[in-house]
Amino acid sequence: MALTIAALISIIMLSAISIGNSLSLNYYEKTCPDVELIVAKAVKDATSNDKTVPAALLRMHFHDCFIRGCDASVLLNSKGNNKAEKDGPPNISLHAFHAIDNAKSQVENSCPGVVSCADILALAARDAVFLSGGPSWDVPKGRKDGRTSKASETIQLPAPTFNISQLQQSFSQRGLSMEDLVALSGGHTLGFSHCSSFQNRIHNFNTTHDVDPSLKPSFAAKLKSICPLKSRPKNAGTTIDPSTTTFDNTYYKAILQGMSLFSSDQALLDTPKTKDLVSKFATSQKAFYKAFVNSMIKMSSINGGQEVRKDCRVVN
Ligand code: HEM
Ligand SMILES: *[C@@H]1O[C@H](CO)[C@@H](O)[C@H](O)[C@H]1NC(C)=O
Ligand SMILES: *[C@@H]1O[C@H](CO)[C@@H](O)[C@H](O)[C@H]1NC(C)=O
Ligand SMILES: *[C@@H]1O[C@H](CO)[C@@H](O)[C@H](O)[C@H]1NC(C)=O
Fold first, then answer.
1. Which among 14, 25, 190, 212 has the fewest CB atoms less than 10 Å away?
2. How many H helices and E strands in the chain?
């Protein structure tokens, strides 16, 4: 009985998400046929100047979708006394906004007033994964941009200290499953983290352990030397996936070896279902890619805004 009710609720949630939503693959076929080429080129150009761009764009899209749906609220600037999402606490390492600005201005030159910033960001995230050696996929389009962005709402983002039940809750509130959680966490195959995001694991972990015992000791020692408690360099940190900078499945191998960075990565081993998925993705990059693409399309379909912004940083 309990199961039936839970299943019913998730069916209702999923359909609520898909009803509001009329995304389609050929949305700009007549109104802006070159949009995908233009965005891909802008992402490629930005990346050739700065190798940190792909990771930034992927994370930016995730943050966008988790707050008010994928509505480009993450791109809005603070205005007057309204502090926007990008100036909220977990904005650490959000960057590469200029890459989206450039893509948008080139898209506007070719088809003014037609393509939403939310769609540009969804396309850019896909292009970022592909440019990093990962899979590609067709992105459904037709998102609208929102008119609200509040720094205070960024506390709704999952924190790196979250345990498995907190992660599950954060994802299920957005219609995303445990499989989506494990697959999308694979985004951590790219990018950089500051010490503040994982220092809970290497200093004063709890009253009996200074260091999280699930970390491999030599790896923990390395993290401690990068992130000393005192006189730490200002932007100290490390790549999230220790072994590579390409979009691959080494993130899952690292988790199994006690070399994940965040408590939220390690937590994926704490239920049999999520643990099995970590093992599956660690063994099969193909299975990871397939699941990641499927979950990205799901996450990037979370509904948002109302308008097509002219400038991604300000509402019309
Ligand atoms: C499951 C919940 C998640 C948590 C708790 C989480 C947490 C974090 C944290 C703390 C950082 C480092 C920030 C810093 O210190 O600079 C980070 C970086 C990153 N995250 Fe996540 N994340 C989650 C899910 C995701 C998802 C779903 C994606 C994309 C599919 C993603 C992609 C990234 C990327 C690419 C970076 C590197 C950013 C850069 O180098 O600029 N994360 N994440
Ligand atoms: C993050 O927030 C801080 C403090 O509110 C702000 O100074 C900084 O510019 C923000 N970072 C980005 C990338 O917008
Ligand atoms: C996860 O954290 C929450 C909040 O701190 C706590 O109430 C809950 O018991 C924890 N769950 C697990 C499985 O550790
Ligand atoms: C500290 O964490 C370890 C590993 O998770 C656990 O075994 C131990 O019981 C914890 N100690 C306290 C006091 O919570």
1. 25
2. 13, 2
